Amino acid sequence: MEQHRYTPQALIDFSAQVLDKAGMDERQAHVVAQVLVEADLLGHTTHGLALLASYAAEVQNGSMKASGAPRVLSDKGAAVLWDGERLPGPWLVCQAIDELLPRARKFGSATLVIRRSHHIACLASYLMRAVEQDMLIVLASSDPAGQSVAPFGGTQAVFTPNPIAAGIPASSPLLIDISASVTTNGMCSRMAKQGEQFDEEWLIDAHGNPTRDPKVLFDTPGGTILPVGGLAAGHKGYGLALLVEALTGGLAGYGRADGAEGWGATVFISLYDTVGFAGKEEFLRQMDFLADQCRSNPPRPGVEAVRVPGDRGLALRKAFMKEGLVLHEGIEPALRELAEKYDLDFPLTGTK
Asked: pLDDT, tens digit, for every residue of 163-211?
């Protein structure tokens, strides 16, 4: 089967043009486009360019603010709170990291929380932005307007998947991007549209019966995604979901207690300067030792080798940057529709 490969920069330029045509500020559109393409480069195909059409539609209907700046609600030096004014989430997160870098160098660590951000796409896309500055980053997000995950033992959705990510400096950086649920809304949506089922019972229907079918999430009444740990040990994901809610909605003073406002996010970002504690060299010595212990661990049957988080994504990114990016099926047709809608040239491809 013919594989189309795209130059990442061409996809960034095209995506920025789409968002610009939809009405987004040109500078912000370019940053958002970079974040979306970065997700696909790292293999997170449900949270990258798959979101472009939805983002453009949100700008056009006014649900995503097309330009402007966040409003500072509190600034204590090492602790900052912004009102994101429903601006593009990827742009807000990038601005927040840039704001935190000099503060973390000064204080050792610094945290910025954003209320009323729009959706922030793939958390892994931001991690190297901090890691390359010798910073450990912790990033978490929740959506006060969304419910798709029930508390452990329950049947009615309360939480979103509540992702949390960490970028950890090392000789080969550790890039952790996980969620408090066993799968994501985006993956459920993709698989439901394709008529596919999960290999294991990762959801329950509205009556609490376990199922592999992602379509139950979209039924009326709807089912829910299970927390990490599933039916037997879901208290673990439940606890993680509550922690993410505290870091986001709790610290922001804006969350589920305030009612729905449309697709968006409340965001927690914290940077830790590896130089400011025991020192960068000592930090790397510890993390490299642990990573080596994991990678050299004898694999169990059926596993080729033990990896650490980030190994696969960074390898994919390196290959895609060299050979061209292969888009997940379904993304290219959607991008071509956007090209036609906004009268844009679609990027030329090579084939392999």
From this structure: 999 999 999 999 999 999 999 999 999 999 999 999 999 999 999 999 9
- What secondary structure does DSSP assign to 1-30, as a single string? ---EEB-HHHHHHHHHHHHHHHT--HHHHH
The identity of residue 305, as a single letter, is: A
Closest C-alpha among 260, 36, 48, 271 to residue 160: 260
Task: Enter the pTM of the model.
Answer: 0.96
Q: What kind of fold does domain 1-67+314-352 have according to CATH? A: Hypothetical Oxidoreductase Yiak; Chain: A, domain 1 (1.10.1530)
**In 11-162, beta strands by DSSP E:** 71-75, 79-83, 109-117, 135-142
pLDDT in tens, 287-345: 999 999 999 999 999 999 999 999 999 999 999 999 999 999 989 999 999 999 999 99
From 3.30.70.270, 3.40.50.2000, 3.90.1150.10, 3.30.60.50, which CATH number describes the 183-225 domain? 3.30.60.50
Angle, CA 181 vertex, CA 176 and CA 185 arms, to 5°: 100
Distance of CA 7 to CAs 83, 124, 253, 261, 340, Å?
35, 20, 42, 37, 20
**Ramachandran angles phi, psi of 112, nearest 5°:** -130, 130
Instruction: Please tell me the distance from the alpha carbon of residue 168 to that of residue 162, in angstroms, as a whole number.
Output: 20
Q: Where are the domains of the chain?
A: 1-67+314-352, 70-177+235-309, 183-225
Angle at 47 between CA 46 and CA 52, to 5 degrees: 100
Q: Which residue reads 């969620």 in tokens?
A: 179
Best CA proximity match to 114, nearest among 138, 132, 92, 144: 92
Beta bridge partners of 115: 83
Q: How confident is the model at residue 260 (pLDDT cuts 50, 70, 90)?
A: confident
Residue 2 has a pLDDT of 64
